[in-house]
Every structure is written in C-alpha cells, then in structure tokens.
C-alpha cells in the first residue's frame, strides 16, 4: 500500500473533480425524481380511471428492473431510436426514471397512511378534494415520508457509482483510473472514496433525523 503516492495532490484533485460530477448527477436526479415521484404518487393515490392503473403498471415494472439495465438502456438503446444523450444526461435520465418510481410508491403509501376521518371531516367542512389533498393530506404525509425519502436519496447517491459502466467521469471512474496507475494505490484510494461517500450520506441521515424529531 502506498498512501503517500495515492494521496498525491494531483490524485486528490482528480478525485474531487469526479466527486463534483457525482454530486451534480445526484442533485439533479434527486430534484427531478422528487417532483415526478410526488406527481405520480398523488395521481396513483387519487385513483383516476385508466390513468392510475396505467401508472401503477409502469411503476411496478420499473421498480422490478435493475438500475444497471436502465442505465444501459438510456445510453445504448435510446440512440438506436434517434434519442442520443451524452453520458452525464443519460445517467441522470436513468436515475430519474428509477428513483421516480421508488419515490412515487413512498408518496402513495404516505398519503394512504393519513386517517380517513380527517379527509371526511375536511370534505364535510366544504373543502374540495383538491383542497383537502393540498392542505390536509399532503402536508401530514410529507412529514411522515421524510425518513424513507431521505433513505432513498442516500441510495440514489450511492447508485451514481453504477454510471461507471458507461465511463461517466464521476468519483468511481476517477478512482479506477488512479488505481490503474499502481496496484499499491487500490486500498488507499478506495478507503478515501468510502470516506467521501460516507460523509455525504451520513450528513443526509443526520438531516433526516433532525427533521423527523422536529415533527414528532
């Protein structure tokens, strides 16, 4: 093991550049999949004829596919039908597709956890279905959904490493390039990569706990 050589300034800078790409992909994927997941979850909860069952089929299909397959599809298969994306956006699209399905199920379950009595009371007081959903159901459900949603965000951040299969210049890709220079760098580099992932994910866990305790 060569910690001195592995942690040379040039290597650390290279890893940080990859980590920035990882965080960019994670942030854009989290933001997009969160919005889409809420919309799909609400539409499924509302049980709209034809639309809700159709969305349920799509969600269940995506949830039971490996993310790696979806990444391959967005990068290698879409160009065959004239929709070519570079590595960065292909990775984001794959993550958004997969995570939106996962988050929509969390949202739907959270909405279903709200007591029916509250909904009936709101409707009897004159609120419309949309007003009841927006002002009564969704705010309470979102508070209950904080831990599983943050847990899904943590999984998403870790899943960005799968984009290494399409040579996206993210953290794992840069780590592999450095490791290719010297086999003695493998353990030091992977230890540092593990610490970088841990710091971000543990920080998200702390935020989740803080938000959860705040609303207890």
Automatic annotation (TrEMBL):
Which InterPro entries does this chain map to? Answer: AA_ABC_transptr_permease_3TM (IPR010065), ArtM/GltK/GlnP/TcyL/YhdX-like (IPR043429), MetI-like (IPR000515), MetI-like_sf (IPR035906)
Q: Name one GO biological process term.
A: amino acid transport
Membrane topology recorded in Swiss-Prot or TrEMBL: Multi-pass membrane protein
Task: Give UniProt keywords alphabetically.
Answer: Amino-acid transport, Cell membrane, Membrane, Transmembrane, Transmembrane helix, Transport
Main localization of the protein described in the UniProt heading: membrane
Among the Pfam families in the record, one is BPD_transp_1
Residues crossing the lipid bilayer are 20-42, 54-76, 88-107, 183-204
Q: Where is the ABC transmembrane type-1 domain?
A: 19-208
| GO MF | transmembrane transporter activity
Compartments annotated for it: namely: Cell membrane
Q: Which GO terms describe its cellular component?
A: ATP-binding cassette (ABC) transporter complex
Which residues belong to the signal peptide in this entry?
Answer: none
The similarity annotation says: Belongs to the binding-protein-dependent transport system permease family.
Protein's recorded name: Amino ABC transporter, permease, 3-TM region, His/Glu/Gln/Arg/opine family domain protein
Source organism (scientific name): Anoxybacteroides amylolyticum
Taxonomic classification: Bacteria, Bacillati, Bacillota, Bacilli, Bacillales
